[in-house]
Amino acid sequence: MTKDIMERYQGCYCANLRQISRAVTQYYEDVLKPTGLKVTQYTLLQYVKSVGACTMQQVSDGLGLERTTLVRNFRILQEKGLVEMISSTSSRSNFIQLTEQGLEVLEQAIPYWNQAQRFLEEECLSVEELTSLKAILQKLQKRLS
Q1: Please, what sign has the CA dihedral across residues 128, 44, 140, 5?
Q2: Where does residue 14 rank: exposed (0-12), middle (13-18), buried (19+ CB within 10 A)?
Q3: How far is CA 64 from CA 3, 5, 60, 112, in A?
Q4: CA-based, 20 to 30 A from 34: which of 82, 115, 126, 142?
Q5: Is the separation of the CB atoms in 113 and 28 below 8 Å?
Q6: Distance of CA 88 to the CA centre of its chain
């Protein structure tokens, strides 16, 4: 690559955000590996645990993820026996809820997730930097949504 192209690439906000996103995701994936969960699966299980039985639309709205992505990910979690789909008699939507096994796997994963969080908090960025980063990312999300 020529110097001009490299400078443009390194100055590209999108490329930089995607690159760091991949690196952070890979770090969490490595830390969570003993649990058998991907970080996306952990996030979905934690969300369903926090809100209780919910529809795919509620998860989509709550996490800002596309339904097609959620369907694929919840299908995998269902095949692993970590969530179950419950038919609603009053609507066309199915409700997603954690199974006992899903709750157990999630509880086992929490210390690993905490380890990843601590690494970012103690080894990578200061509390002030993390607070600023979170505010900046939320501002971008709000503005771009």
Answers
A1: positive
A2: exposed
A3: 37, 33, 5, 24
A4: 126
A5: yes
A6: 27
Residue 117: what residue type?
A: Q
pTM for the full predicted model: 0.86
The rounded distance, in Å, linking the Cα atoms of 110 and 104 is 10
Alpha carbons 67 and 99: distance in angstroms, whole number? 21
| Per-residue pLDDT tens over the stretch 27-77 | 999 999 999 999 999 999 999 999 999 999 999 999 999 999 999 999 999
Looking up tokens 């390194």, which residue turns up?
10
Q: CA nearest 120: which of 134, 141, 108?
A: 134
Q: Where are the beta strands (DSSP E) in the chain?
A: 54-55, 83-87, 94-98
How is residue 83 written in tokens?
């969530």
Predicted confidence at residue 76, as pLDDT, reads 97
Rounded CA-CA distance 117/31 in Å is 10
- Residue 43 vs residues 5, 14, 21, 40, 129: alpha-carbon distances, Å: 36, 23, 15, 5, 23
